[in-house]
Amino acid sequence: MLDQDPAKVRRVTCIGAGPIGGGWAAYYLSRGYHVTSYLHQASEIDALKRLMDTAWTSLEEIGLEPGASMDNFTWTADLEKSVEQAEFIQESIPEVLELKQNLYAMLGDIADPRVVIASSTSGMSMTDIQAKCATPERTVVAHPFNPPYLLPLVEMIGGNKTEPETVDWARRFYLAAGKAPLVMQKEVPGFIATRLQEAIWREALHMVANGEATVEQIDQAVVNGPGPRWALMGPCEIFHIGGGEGGMAYCLDQFGPALKLPWTRLVAPELTQDLRNKMVDGCIAMTDGQDFATLSKKMNHGLVEIAKMKRRQSS
Amino acid sequence: MLDQDPAKVRRVTCIGAGPIGGGWAAYYLSRGYHVTSYLHQASEIDALKRLMDTAWTSLEEIGLEPGASMDNFTWTADLEKSVEQAEFIQESIPEVLELKQNLYAMLGDIADPRVVIASSTSGMSMTDIQAKCATPERTVVAHPFNPPYLLPLVEMIGGNKTEPETVDWARRFYLAAGKAPLVMQKEVPGFIATRLQEAIWREALHMVANGEATVEQIDQAVVNGPGPRWALMGPCEIFHIGGGEGGMAYCLDQFGPALKLPWTRLVAPELTQDLRNKMVDGCIAMTDGQDFATLSKKMNHGLVEIAKMKRRQSS
After folding, report:
1. Would the N or C end of chain B have less CB density within 10 A of its end CB?
2. What kind of architecture, by CATH, is found in domain A6-183?
3. Min CA distance, A105 vs chain B (Å)?
4. Predicted confidence band at B243 (pLDDT cuts at 50, 70, 90)?
5. How far apart, in Å, are the Cα atoms of B243 and each of A20, B234, B292?
6. Nearest CA to CA, how far is A216 from chain B (Å)?
7. Do residues B132 and B105 lie in contact, with contact meaning Cβ atoms separated by under 8 Å?
8. CA distances from residue B283 to A156, B83, B214, B233, B238 in whole angstroms, order as listed
9. Domain ranges of chain A
10. If you average pLDDT over every residue of chain B, what do you get?
11. Residue A84 in contact with partner chain B when CB distance is under 8 A
């Protein structure tokens, strides 16, 4: 609740029983929360339980928080009842705007207005979702990556009617819950991670459509090539290291012209001095100015660990 | 040599002493080969040695092959001498077409024509590189990912004058050397992995240029979101699992319309029935028809290992 320390929340309601809603429920349980799931139909409970059992196996392996137990789980097909005790609401219903708008209209009336409602939507705008809600100031997008119990990212942004305080409170809630919240500056369609992922995906579809690569070749190229690096660091830091001692500045000055090559179907932006400086300064700030030797040692260490893990898995 | 079992090769010459050439040299040494490096200038030896020492630390951690030793390394600034005993040549000089063409013209005359010459070029065409070479039939592109001693991918394709036998021989050589060779169907600018990586990179540059995300947000979005999955499987298998029991077919039928959304600046290809089938059949073949439960368990297990590794690193 907005008048409460977000680290003190103990009761979370998860609305929706699909892979995202169920994944969130298992995750919150593993962190010691009491969780109530709202199911659209009672018959969904068996599939939800199976999903949560699968999640729980992984969560136990990672390590449960003190007090975490599947016994802290309840469910109901009664929406009003599901949010009665909620101190936080995570909504993960199907990605159909009308369904979301109607749900937020109902929740806006029945849920305590001090309770934050966060939507797992993977690309819709909260401005649209909250359009029919009478208490939109406490609604926010909080988009996880699948599976939400294993990947820490939560992309966050409010809608036009969202109070900034809501976004900040929810950000602190996710931090306390062990997540990696990322508050965006703008409502961008597809947010950040999905946009980047979608760019790869569309390039892959083009390549298959044109007989330039098969499905298997695309996956092998990622897994044996850039993939392991992306588990450790993003594209900017990778190029910052790829530039050697000269870092991102060297990289852009040297390989900038490659942006004009037809190495993807996506046309590049103009590499203006301003963009160049944003990239260079951003990399230096992000890595606390650590030098090439330190950063590349860190990357190597992670890649060695991933290589060893893969060897264990395949043996 | 082409008249030799590629698994019996013992002597490799690495031309070029930068991060790629030096990385290859260290890698081949770790697999028990005798390696000769050609340096453009003798003064490059100190930087090369430092680079190889860094690589060696990681390679020792992964595990050396029997007989592997840094003592099996020699170097020279004499090109002719460098290839005298070579049974395989890995070229990694700067990405300037004229330099490569001139080098291949020289190597074409001085290196035994039965010796395969493989170029580490990250996007040039072998048809262009081999243009001035008198013995082009034994030349092939073999593009590694940086660092070449830790990432297994080697993207391969011949030029117009390359003998198919050369490509197959080199593919078997890389397999014997513990690499993951990927033979492409067509000479596509940027090959496969770099095209996919470049699509992400350009989308990221657009977002920074437009104030939609900062450098740090982009990297956090990848590392905490899709990144760890890409260390384990490619975008196709990820969506095949994302589709649940219905796999890629469900995924495309359900989320296909999302291809029309502005979730990246890259316009998607039309999702024809033919493309749909290629994606679906490709995923089923690639995963040997394993079911959702098996595949998602495998993914979860890998993600748990990565999460644990990251926790160890940050503690």
Report:
1. C
2. 3-Layer(aba) Sandwich (3.40)
3. 25
4. confident
5. 12, 14, 9
6. 6
7. yes
8. 32, 43, 35, 12, 10
9. 6-183, 225-314
10. 95
11. no
